[in-house]
Amino acid sequence: MGTDIRGGGEAGRRLAAGAAVPDVLDVEDPRAWIALDQGVRSWVAVKLLPTRATIEGTEAAGPGSWPGSPRRPRRLSESQLALALCHREGRIREAALALAAGHPALWPLVVVRTADWVSPVRDLAREVLRAVLDVDSAVRLAPLILLGARRGRGVFAVDLLEEALRPAPRDRLVPLFTDADRAVRRFAYRLAVDEGLLSPAELARTAARHADPVVQDVCAEAALAVVAEGGGHDDVLQPLLAARGPRVRAAAVTALRRAGRAEQGEEFLADRAGVVRACARYVVRQAGADPLSWYRRRCADPGDPALPPGAVAGLAECGERADAALLWPLVAHPSPRVRARAVAGLRALDVTDVRRLSALLDDPAPGVVRETTVALLASARSLDADALMERLADGRPRHVRVAAFRLLDARGGLVRLRAAVALLADPDAGLRQRAGQSVQSWHPTADVPAGASEVSEVGELLDRGRHLFSDYVLRRRKWEAGVRG
Predict the structure, then answer these.
(1) What is the pTM for the complete model shown?
(2) Cα–Cα nearest to 375, from 393, 400, 397, 356
(3) What gap in Å lies between CA 204 and CA 216, rounded to an integer?
(4) pLDDT tens per residue, range 407-429
(5) In whole angstroms, what is the distance from residue 57 CA to residue 65 CA?
(6) CB 173 within 8 A of CB 140
(7) 130 to each of 101, 104, 138, 292, 352, how far by Cα in Å?
(8) What are the residues whose beta carbons fall under 8 Å from the beta carbon of 272, sequence distance 6 or more?
(9) For a tag site, which of 199, 379, 415, 458 has the least CB within 10 Å?
């Protein structure tokens, strides 16, 4: 959880010195309370903490008192009570809980104690929390309760939180919808959905705009239940179909069929997300149309500047090897995204022409070069090693150099070692690191090195990378390669 126990211990020492709780602790931060609890037990000396007699008011009347003299109750300060609630001795924590109900500022420590490892302490804390928890305090304590739920025995407090908040009106949950902790936001939206506090249109707008994928799913599923029941659709479907989250759009596209608007699924056949395209193909097929024919028509003109990249990807996803004839012209399309999708599509259709694809390693778009590299990795041993080494030159674009090294590294053997050693002093830190890792993991094989000249070259190359090895490992690696002396 990232708890600052040392900071909590320092806060505990300041409390022992008489400082007020708000002066030593960020009371709005749930992690600060957990840090205080752990820090007091770990870093604060026992002599600085309240005793059980202090808490129960059974100390002697004062200096010089004699046995049997009347006791006088002593009012604990809030700081002392906070320390007692964090005490390492369970009987003291239990005694402090009996006083905690009257100190709302310390209820966060009551929440912490509901997951205490000592049963009597834990049971009493749960009784106290049940007694004091109302809507206002539940909203205030929700972040800490949900944070504690990630620890052992923290579920009880979550159940109490739900019980307190279920009757709450919608406006009381609003602060939780925007809480900094995503667990709190998710809890609040789940509760709002369960209690029907948000209309289907509000749920749809939330699913479309919210940044958290879990909240998107919860709200989209609840909103689309209206479509399943045959209610109104436009105010629900339109925001969801335009959502930025692909899973929300996919769910909305699938719901088009239930809404009697399956023909609209064609608009999403070229969506940027694969899951949305897959759902759109399902809807279109249910309407009796053929999505593959649509893709073929859409990709038939390689010079179409408005061709969406998703249409190219969709053709590869549901097409046949013969559809490669439509994809090859698209590797020269003006749009880098279309070119990249075309290369990826050729790989998906298992169509690889090493000569034609190799020319794309010099494409100005990094995305195209990345896709080309992935497509060529399986054929790395058949590539021209000299041409790849030329692409490692310092003056080449970085994405070209990275692609060339990936292919040379995949080629293996002596070529891999040459390429890696050549980059050990490269000014590009990323390439230099990859090269060093490649040299360290290089091992000779049954056919490499072959002959005395290659053995000698391997020895020289390993010597150039000696800073990457210990003396023992370097000698061992040379011995494996047949280098003697």
Answers:
(1) 0.84
(2) 356
(3) 9
(4) 999 999 999 999 999 999 999 99
(5) 15
(6) no
(7) 10, 13, 10, 61, 67
(8) 246, 308, 309, 310
(9) 199
